[in-house]
Amino acid sequence: MELRERYNALYADFAKIDDINLLEKLKLVPAQKHFWSARLIETKNEYYKLLRAKNKIKRALVEDKIKNSPVTVTITKSFLDKVDDDPKLEPMNERIQDVELTIEALKNHYSNITYISQDFKNILEAIRMQNE
């Protein structure tokens, strides 16, 4: 959550655009797009690592339940759902949800930067037409 809040603050700082800093912000748009794209890729990489770690824990829990069961266990969808609800997975599930929200925020920041660049292009075109 702290990471998402830090990203939101960085984006909010860039998105403050007025007549004074318009050209400065225009020059920063390509760098900003690369910045947000890289943060998105990093966060997705973290997300997939978390999913792999969760699956390892889940497999270990399933194997443990099968090994410690007094009867033969058939792995069904409901059995796997019960494993998903295991308290040992709760912190991992919370972390995964947080990263999913961060990914959504980063996607929004990236697409907003794209819209901003288009808006800049339109503003500059309007200024050029006024000066003709």
Descriptive overview:
This protein is mainly α. It has 4 helices and no strands. The protein has helices at residues 2-15, 22-68, 77-84, 90-131. The longest helix has 47 residues, at 22-68. The radius of gyration is 23 Å and the shape is rod-shaped. The chain starts with a helix and ends with a helix. The relative contact order is 0.15.
Task: Chart the SSEs and their pairings.
Elements: H1 2-15, H2 22-68, H3 77-84, H4 90-131
Helix pairs in contact: 1-4, 2-4
Notable characteristics:
132 residues; single chain; 4 helices; 0% strand; mainly alpha
What value does the Rg take, in angstroms? 23 Å
SSE pattern: HHHH
Shape category: rod-shaped
Distance between the termini: 50 Å
Report strand %.
under 5%
Helix content: over 70%
Q: What structural category characterises the helix and strand content?
A: mainly alpha
Mean pLDDT: 85
- Major sheet, described briefly? none
Number of helices: 4
Low-confidence parts: none
Brief write-up:
Helix content is 84%, strand content 0%.
